[in-house]
Amino acid sequence: MKTAVVILNWNGRKFLEDFLPAVCRDSISADAEVIVADNGSTDDSLAFLSNNYPQVKQLPLDKNYGFAEGYNRALAMVDAEYVLLLNSDVETTPGYLQTMVDYLDANPDVAGCQPKIRAFHNRRCFEHAGASGGFIDKWAYPFCRGRIFAEVEQDNGQYDTVTDVFWATGAALMIR
């Protein structure tokens, strides 16, 4: 498989109900699969997936390992050229995945990339967590395009150009 979209889940059936339909619609293809790595959920997330999304591969972990270790354990079991780490509460849009795949294909020196992330409840504005790529200022304070402190900007196309960033958000991060 060329691309795997990996969602780390922990007791997130409601998020899976709300957001997985779009992820499947916008992601599953001959070259891409959706995988839910379950971090030891005690709700009925896995049964929900089995009953409603048999096309989604499940990677059940024996306990909740947290964000970083949960993803590390899951990614050790994934065989794909590119992996998208995707939060379970992110709504995808048509074409989002192919844009990142095309960029990484065309730029073999780039290790990873992220899309612009807009707020779910106000889609004209950037999302607070990640926005459009992160930087570190001269005082070592992290900030990102589209958000300075608590202020988020409207997306008026001002960050439509690709740029190197110091950090990318784990909410939607594609890596080799």
* Number of separate helices: 4
Strand order of the largest sheet: 3-2-1-4-10-5
Oligomer status: single chain
SS elements, strand count: 10
**For the CA atoms, what is the radius of gyration?**
16 Å
Relative strand content: 15-25%
Span of the ends, CA to CA = 13 Å
Order of helices and strands: EHEHEHEHEEEEEE
Question: What is the helix content?
Answer: 25-40%
Low-confidence stretches: none
- Biggest β-sheet description: 6 strands, mixed
Question: What is the overall pLDDT average?
Answer: 93
Global outline:
globular
User: Structural class of the helix and strand makeup?
Assistant: alpha/beta
Would you mind describing this structure in some detail?
This protein is α/β, with parallel strands linked by helices. Helix content is 25%, strand content 23%. It has 4 helices and 10 strands; from the N terminus they run E-H-E-H-E-H-E-H-E-E-E-E-E-E. The chain has a 6-stranded mixed β-sheet, with helices on both faces. Strand 1, helix 1 and strand 2 (32-39) form a beta-alpha-beta unit. It is globular and about 45 Å long. The mean pLDDT is 93.
